[in-house]
Amino acid sequence: MNLKKIIRLSFLINILQILLIIVIIFYINYAPSQDMFLLLYGSAGLTTFNSMLAVVSYYFLIAREDRKDVQETIQNLENLNATLREQRHDYLNHIQVIYGLMELEEFEEAKHYMEPVYEDLLKVGKALKTSHPAVNALLQAKMQKGQNEDVSVYLEVKSNLKDISMEPWELCKVLSNVIDNGFTALMQKENMRKLYIDIGEDQANYSFYIYNNGPVIPPDVLPNIFIQGFSTKKEEGHGMGLAIVKKTLEKVGGSIQVDSNVDKTCFTILVPKV
User: Fold this and answer.
1) Membrane-crossing residues (predicted)?
2) Residue, of 169 and 38, whose pLDDT is higher
3) Which of 174, 66, 82 shows the shortest CA–CA distance to 124?
4) Are 169 and 69 in contact (CB under 8 A)?
5) For a tag site, which of 28, 134, 142, 243 has the least CB within 10 Å?
6) Contact by Cβ (8 Å): 242, 257
7) Residue 3 CB contacts under 8 Å (≥ 6 apart), including other chains
8) How would you class 123 by CB atoms within 10 Å of its CB: exposed for 0-12, middle for 13-18, buried for 19 or more?
9) Model pTM above 0.85
């Protein structure tokens, strides 16, 4: 049974509960006590079933989100592997060109040729600094997404995350949701879109600062963005991402908070070391 069917069934049972309550109120002064007893038990049964259905709906949605996150992690790893293979092939060609230019003593031309090649190498190198291939693949995927969507992504990795107290795919779920939230906010700007990802550590925690120069989050919205089901978007499926992020972090003793002003919106994530 898919999520839409579960929600529709839950709605139908709620309607039946309301009708039962109306019938009970009507029968209070007229129905025999035995009939009244059956009505009360029927209402209690429907209420219990509907509560169980709500729990099933929630865990069905969580399981669906987890499957999607694992699939996304696998896809990111495959994309990173493909990127590295392409770069290895391209760099062999670049070396041949640079060697040829130097043989011809075209040193200035060789320098100009090397600059974009070096920049391309640095972009991938920045995303390969942690000890978790899945996280490296995610960071590389988000940097590529920035290029595709005209967003300047600045990545600073000052920790290898070796002793983090989360499974790599769960960390990817957390980072992906928050980073994508930044991309969505930046789409409201016409130009000069900037997204920063700063990863570090202290003695007790790993820190992730993810901030952007998008529009300020209104004060009346800010306290609610980690509440399950809350969303400023109307499309089906929104309103779960940041709530799931918060729950995932709290499960390992981590935390997330957000600050927003006219200059930037910053999500601060802390994850304890093992």
Assistant:
1) 12-30, 36-61
2) 169
3) 82
4) yes
5) 28
6) no
7) 57, 60, 61, 64
8) middle
9) no
What is the secondary structure of 215-254 as a DSSP string? PPPPTTTGGGTTSTT--S--STTTTSHHHHHHHHHHHTT-
242 burial via Cβ count (<10 Å: 0-12, 13-18, 19+): buried
Domains of the chain as residue ranges with CATH: 130-274 (3.30.565.10)
End-to-end CA separation in angstroms for the chain: 39
List the 265-272 sheet strands across, edge first: 152-157, 194-201, 205-212, 265-272, 255-260
Give phi and psi for 186, each to the nearest 5. -70, -20
In eight-state DSSP terms, residue 273 is B
Residue 50: name the closest of 80, 72, 20 by CA. Answer: 20
Q: Give the span between the Cα atoms of 240 and 54, in whole angstroms.
A: 15
